[in-house]
Amino acid sequence: MMQSFETKEVRSQPMLAIRATSAMDNLSELMGSLFGEVYGHILQSGQHSAGMPFSRYHSMDGKTVDLECGMPVPSPIEGKGRVEAGELPAGTVATVTHVGPYDDLPQSWSALTAWMESQGLQPAGAPWEVYITDPGAEPDQSKWRTDIFFPVR
Predict the structure, then answer these.
(1) For 51, left (φ over 0), alpha (ψ -120 to 50), or beta?
(2) pLDDT tens digit sequence for 55-87
(3) Secondary structure in 3-state letters for 47-105
């Protein structure tokens, strides 16, 4: 599948998230439990999510990752415990849509960063993935869609 890269402006988005550090091989298990905890807090607050879950990557060294797993909300909701309120930032992002299994995401990330370099775009913050397809609703991994956003200047 041909990937289409672009830059666009995004608005800030209130969100709730849990920040954690994980070994790369435990990542999918950890992410599932963090999303569940964040969603539970949203429901306990009498609110609803304003979109699909996301992971925001603060650093990666190949073996461990420092990330936030969260969900957007329509308006700010107070955090509690390790569920923290915040926002995804407004600004210019480089973006691409990955279609396929999560295991193939590194290739889309590499292609996006190579495209950014070819366009003279500099990273300007922590990038994030939005998981558009719910794997529980769509078992065919070849149909899973993940949008990648990388803040740039």
Answers:
(1) left
(2) 999 998 878 999 999 999 999 999 999 999 999
(3) CCCCCCCEEEEEEECCCEEEEEEEEECCCCCCCECCEEEEEECCEEEEEEEEECCHHHH
CA-closest candidate to residue 77, choices 54, 45, 50, 52: 45
pLDDT for the residue numbered 24: 87
Give 18's strand partners. Answer: 69
With H, G, I as helix, E, B as strand and everything else as coil, classify residue 127: coil
Pair of tokens at residue 61 = 């060294």
Other CB atoms within a 10 A radius of the CB of residue 11 amount to 9
> Residues in the chain, how many?
153
d(CA 127, CA 138): 25
Sheet holding 91-99, edge to edge: 6-10, 91-99, 145-151, 128-131, 54-60, 64-72, 13-23, 84-88
Helix (H) or strand (E) holding 21: strand 13-23
How sure is the predictor about 117, in pLDDT bands with cuts at 50, 70 and 90?
Answer: very high
Residue whose C-alpha is closest to residue 55's, from 117, 98, 114? 98
